[in-house]
């Protein structure tokens, strides 16, 4: 072969991976969301949260695999390229880059980046309780990230976590406990991924902290004697918020469950509301007996219903969404300062015990509280339906101001039977 042609061929064809090195340090710091190629299978992955990490895509034993090389905050571009080259060599020699990758990824992953990954994974398919989902990461942003957010998850020790928790342990005891629990969850994930060889540094820390003096805070509840007066005030309003609050009181359920109620869940003919499992805190289907007052309210709302939404309590601004969680709270507090919607359940529970002396299991199941095993709960909820129906009808009579039926010597059940006969 002609020497000139041989030299040209060597210049055109290079052996080994074609590493182009497209990125630079300035771009790594400023790049927007997405996956940005550096060449040779090395990518900068930028999440919507702003977290950025290195990913290497190579072929291992005939299969395409992705390997994380750590956070871009801890691993500069040059080091990421070196790590990528090492793993390529391991793969070409027939070895398993996964072992080497896990050893280094833990040292190159910050607590903040892993916490955000855990948060996204933990709540990926969860729509229930959006407020809790937001608070989960917000508490870490406020209390943990400033101190340990940029530290490697492999290098964090128990005293690092204690420095986060100690300043708020006595001042904000409940918040401190939640922060500690969420930090522990992140490190459980780190251990499971093989990022740490020394276990979860948050384990056992609570037992080493000072004894907290706080008492559990309960939702402020109205006195059950005041509920009839509240209902009279709500009855004078035609707002969707007032209707939702009335229905919440009549059914003694959580406001979130009421806000997500749809007409397809309501069976007025059978006087029941079948709530799907995903709308319940217990994650089990729940059937609510509808009192005469509750059915009357639904009939009134049905006359105002439009085809724009299946929601029973749609937002006036956007019928495709339920009313906001603050709507009922603000309305309630405009009449009784400091009262909470959730506290209405406590008023019902106290009334059930003190006024009608309802059996505990009937009252608790009426509140959709989990009692006993899953099998026991399924049995009780089906066989206590009539008992709960009677209790909620009595509650409806009470909140409607028909207090005379609760005097000694009056047969309330006979009145309930009479009304049910008239209703049918």
Could you write a compact summary of the structure shown?
It contains 19 helices and 7 strands. The protein has 424 residues and is of the alpha+beta class.
Q: Which fold name fills CATH's third level, the topology of the largest domain?
A: hpI Integrase, Chain A
Shape: elongated
- Decide which structural class fits the backbone: alpha+beta
In whole angstroms, the N-to-C terminal distance is 103 Å
Q: Oligomeric form of this entry?
A: single chain
| Strand percent estimate | 5-15%
Could you give me the name of the CATH homologous superfamily of the largest domain? Intergrase catalytic core
Percent of residues in helices: 40-55%
CATH second-level architecture of the largest domain:
Orthogonal Bundle
**How many H/I helices?**
19
Could you give a short account of the major beta sheet? 4 strands, antiparallel
Number of domains: 3
The helix/strand order is HHEEEEHHHHHHHHHHEEEHHHHHHH
Placed side by side, the strands forming the largest sheet appear as 1-2-3-4
Q: What's the number of extended β-strand segments?
A: 7
CATH level-1 class of the largest domain = Mainly Alpha
Query: Whole-number radius of gyration?
Result: 30 Å
Q: What value does the average pLDDT take?
A: 83
Show unreliable segments.
Answer: 1-18
Account of the 3D structure:
The protein has 424 residues and is of the alpha+beta class. The protein has 3 domains: 17-102, Double Stranded RNA Binding Domain (2-Layer Sandwich); 113-208, Tyrosine recombinase, N-terminal domain (DNA polymerase, domain 1); 227-423, Orthogonal Bundle (hpI Integrase, Chain A). Helix content is 51%, strand content 9%. It contains 19 helices and 7 strands.
């Amino acid at each position: 072969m002609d020497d000139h042609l041989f030299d040209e061929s060597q210049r055109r064809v290079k052996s080994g991976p074609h590493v182009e090195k497209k990125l630079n340090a300035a771009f790594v710091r400023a790049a927007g969301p997405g996956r940005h190629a550096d060449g040779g299978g090395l990518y900068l992955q930028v999440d919507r949260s702003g977290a950025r990490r290195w990913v290497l895509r190579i072929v291992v034993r005939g299969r395409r695999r992705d390997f994380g090389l750590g956070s871009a905050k801890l691993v500069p571009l040059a080091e990421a390229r070196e790590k990528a080259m090492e793993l390529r060599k391991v793969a070409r020699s027939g070895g398993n880059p996964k072992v080497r990758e896990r050893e280094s990824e833990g040292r190159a992953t910050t607590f903040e980046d892993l916490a955000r990954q855990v948060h996204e994974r933990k709540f990926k398919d969860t729509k229930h309780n959006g407020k809790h989902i937001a608070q989960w990461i917000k508490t870490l942003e406020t209390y943990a990230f400033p101190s340990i957010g940029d530290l490697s998850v492999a290098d964090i020790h128990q005293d690092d976590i204690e420095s986060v928790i100690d300043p708020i342990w006595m001042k904000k005891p409940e918040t401190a406990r939640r922060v500690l629990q969420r930090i522990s969850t992140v490190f459980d994930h780190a251990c499971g991924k093989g990022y740490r060889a020394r276990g979860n540094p948050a384990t056992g820390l609570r037992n080493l902290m000072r004894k907290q003096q706080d008492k559990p805070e309960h939702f402020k509840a109205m006195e059950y004697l005041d509920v009839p007066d509240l209902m009279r005030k709500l009855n004078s309003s035609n707002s969707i918020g007032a209707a939702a609050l009335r229905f919440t009181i009549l059914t003694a359920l959580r406001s979130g469950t009421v806000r997500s109620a749809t007409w397809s869940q309501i069976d007025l003919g059978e006087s029941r509301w079948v709530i799907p499992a995903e709308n319940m805190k217990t994650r089990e289907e729940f059937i609510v007996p509808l009192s005469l007052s509750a059915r009357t309210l639904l009939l009134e709302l049905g006359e105002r219903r439009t085809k724009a939404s299946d929601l029973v309590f749609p937002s006036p601004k956007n019928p495709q969404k339920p009313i906001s969680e603050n709507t009922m709270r603000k309305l309630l507090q405009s009449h009784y300062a400091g009262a909470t919607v959730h506290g209405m359940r406590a008023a019902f529970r106290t009334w059930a015990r003190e006024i009608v002396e309802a059996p505990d299991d009937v009252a608790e199941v009426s509140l959709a509280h989990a009692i006993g095993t899953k099998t026991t709960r399924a049995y009780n909820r089906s066989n206590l339906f009539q008992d709960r129906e009677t209790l909620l009808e009595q509650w409806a009579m009470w909140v409607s101001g028909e207090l005379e039926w609760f005097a000694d010597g009056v047969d309330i059940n006979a009145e309930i039977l009479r009304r049910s006969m008239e209703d049918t």
